[in-house]
Structures are given as structure tokens and as C-alpha cells.
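Side project, low priority. Logging it here so it doesn't get lost.
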Amino acid sequence: MRTLLCLFSLLIVGFLPANADQVLREGDVFRIAIGGAPRQYTSDFELEYKVSDGMVTIPIIGRMRAAGLTPNALAGAIEKRLKDDKIFTNPSVILNQQETARQVVVGGAVRQPGRHPWANDMTLTQAIASASGPSEWAEDKVKLIRAGRAEVYSRKAIKKQPETDPKVLPGDFVEVQGEF
């Protein structure tokens, strides 16, 4: 029955569930849809939410931890709070993650600079490959900028020791050094 409610609310609201194996991170943006109750009572929850300081603020419920949880885990925690606080009897919560929140910017001496989709466990080398690889004027050094801090890596060193290839996160900026 719950599966039918979830599918029904997906059709009514037009949401697609977020990728279940990705965890929410700082700055991620999502929307919530709630089924299992009349729309006139659930519409107050259908807002855009942003993970800030690892938390998210849900109407009536208050602040909840979101960073590090999968969308399904957070949806389950919200459902539990809605039941425990006797707000709804049998809610069904669906999170729809906004695509813009899951991108990396790759620039510098690459063939296709710009915003590129981020994927789970994406590495620095994979981010560069998503920009069609380094250009013919690329140098060895790559700068990874995260939250205003920069680290420089060597593509040659990473090629020799692939285990040193750092993970990139949504919102990171990758700059391949060289002429562009």
C-alpha cells in the first residue's frame, strides 16, 4: 500500500525521487513532497530546502541533521518525526534533489571548460575527463579549489599512483594549469 501511495504522489506532484545511494552534502538543494494526507495540509512542506551547516529546517518539525544522510534516510527521518509528533498519521515523504546542486566546475586548459555533472566517488582525473580531457597546452599541475582553499596536484604523480587521485565534491572548482 505504501508503495502505491509513493507512486501516486509522484504522479500528482510530478517529482522524481533523488538518487538513493548519494548522500546529502553541504549546499545541496532539494524539494519535499508528502503523500498520505490531504494536499491542503501537506502543501506547507513543499518548499525548496538547502543543507546549511549540515542541517535543514522543516516547517513545524524544526532543524534536522541532513548532511551525510541519503535522501531516503532523511525522508524516513522526516516521516518518523511527522508521525511521532502526531502531525500526520501515515505520511509518505519523497525528496527531489535539484540537479544544479551536483556539479563541479572544470576550467583552465581543458577542451570543454564549464559546469559538469558530479557523480558519486568522482575523482580529480574523472572531473578533468568530464571536460573532454586536458588541452594540448595543459601543464602537469591541477588546482582543486574547495570552500576557498586550494590544493595543487600533479597529473603525472596521480597517473603513477592512482590511489592518490583525490575525490571531488559537488561545488568544487578544478583548474588545469596551462595556456587557455
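Brief comment: The first helix runs from residue 2 to 13.
Revisit when time allows.
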